[in-house]
Amino acid sequence: MTTTRREQVRNEVREKILTAAREILVAEGIDGLSMRKLASRIGYTATAIYFHFADKNAVIQALMDEDCLALVQSFSEATKVEDPVERLRLIGMCYVRFAIGNPNHYWVLAMIPYREFVIDANDPRRSDPSQDSYAFLRQSIEIAIQQGCFRPEYSDVEEIAQMLWATVHGIVSLHLTRGADPWFAWRDLETTANHLVTTVLRGMTTRD
């Protein structure tokens, strides 16, 4: 087997492991994930799993890295917009579309409680807007503040970021967990989310 073919097979197995891990996390949570269960799910030995990942934490970190990068890349539409407030609105809408279009990815990123030891808070990618979605949001907010787009009482970048994140996460998690519930007369998610994000930004910025 050539080196290129060997690498291709290795990458295919790695993706198979991550896909299975994502499915287990969504269905059973972090406590339901184990290397043995992963091996059983994809028909490999536990030894084969350890060849690719040192432990369960490494699997989860790889999932977080992969899914967070995919989320950042989904913001590409917003990077083309010069107006800072409109850019923030588009980031919110891109976030909603990513979450609804990739529910398992979003579940792993934002719906499963993680213990502190799982995430490496010192990872340099944490502050890199090209790698981390929260850093991307913070950077966009900083630009908006510098251009005088936010009202004076809204000057804390972290607070604004967490308010905007809570806004889109709230509507996304509501639809992921209860969107099929016939008890409610659900309205179109895209339209409702756009109205919500626009309203929140209007209340925080100097725009009418």
TrEMBL record:
<dbReference type="GO" id="GO:0003700">
    <property type="term" value="F:DNA-binding transcription factor activity"/>
</dbReference>
<dbReference type="InterPro" id="IPR036271">
    <property type="entry name" value="Tet_transcr_reg_TetR-rel_C_sf"/>
</dbReference>
<protein>
    <recommendedName>
        <fullName>HTH tetR-type domain-containing protein</fullName>
    </recommendedName>
</protein>
<keyword id="KW-0238">DNA-binding</keyword>
<dbReference type="InterPro" id="IPR001647">
    <property type="entry name" value="HTH_TetR"/>
</dbReference>
<feature type="DNA-binding region" description="H-T-H motif">
    <location>
        <begin position="34"/>
        <end position="53"/>
    </location>
</feature>
<keyword id="KW-0805">Transcription regulation</keyword>
<dbReference type="Pfam" id="PF00440">
    <property type="entry name" value="TetR_N"/>
</dbReference>
<dbReference type="InterPro" id="IPR050109">
    <property type="entry name" value="HTH-type_TetR-like_transc_reg"/>
</dbReference>
<feature type="domain" description="HTH tetR-type">
    <location>
        <begin position="11"/>
        <end position="71"/>
    </location>
</feature>
<dbReference type="InterPro" id="IPR009057">
    <property type="entry name" value="Homeodomain-like_sf"/>
</dbReference>
<dbReference type="GO" id="GO:0000976">
    <property type="term" value="F:transcription cis-regulatory region binding"/>
</dbReference>
<dbReference type="Pfam" id="PF13305">
    <property type="entry name" value="TetR_C_33"/>
</dbReference>
<keyword id="KW-0804">Transcription</keyword>
<dbReference type="InterPro" id="IPR025996">
    <property type="entry name" value="MT1864/Rv1816-like_C"/>
</dbReference>
